[in-house]
Amino acid sequence: MMRQKFKALKDLDLQNADVSLAIVKEYKKNRESKYMVNYVQINPNLETRLRNIVTRKINSANTFEDYTFDCPEPEEDQVRAINYEETDFYRIFEQLQDLNPEEDIIENIEELVKAKAYLIILRNEEGIQVVGFKTLPENWKMKRDRGLIPLLYRENRFEDLEEENVFSISSFVDLIYFNEALFILSKKNFESGLNFRNGMLAKADELYQEVREINLFVNIEILTNRVGNNQRYLRKIATIKNLGYYQNNDYLQRLRLISQQRNWGIEFQEGQIVITEETLDAVLTLLQNKRLHSELTDETFDVDSAKRLEM
Description:
By secondary structure, the chain is α+β, with helices and mostly antiparallel strands.
């Protein structure tokens, strides 16, 4: 399904699409992120440049893979895809659909300073077709820099500017929305811009509850203390949760047997995996199925990311 959507995105003709620009503001309510979207008026020259930013990225994307918590950053001509409902973009897009580009606009320049991200919206007579999303730096009142388009905010709208600039818009986008899918160009900015760490924390809480119920570990506190809010460990936990090997008794029995045969140092106690400070990383690697053996060199490797070979 995602691959079909990627092909349909590549086949789109957006040269005559209407272009709009909107900003996204974020606020917290009961520790949950909420979003507000408002349009910013722009002139025709800027419309053309913004359209080109999005279409260039679509044209240069030639390979496709699904997003996973442990996948590396996409290569220059690559995108990673995820359903938009699995991210905060779903809530942003819900608002965007109900707004009028001519009426629901920002009121003053102070609103721009509060923006977390901006959206480049391409639409035709059927409605919104494609949206480019870009996370803003902490302070996006910046001086002219390579790769940035200078803009002036004048009379309540952005205007294209060559010499002087007040705000800058990047010539890149972090992701592209199309037909309920997100095609990710920057994994790092996607995760920070859409608060994906919160999703990993939720995965971690779910895993802790499950492994306690099935008594998988001895000394689980070592695991929870080490993981905490650490992004690197949260990725490992989220990957373990998604793969689900910890629920497979056959997998766990083979883990125990092979660990003993190869002296990996993983101890079991009455069927439970014993976690120690020294073995925690190895346990997490094995539960991600990332200790792999090369038939070519007869060597064993711990890998950061693995892609199943399609036979």
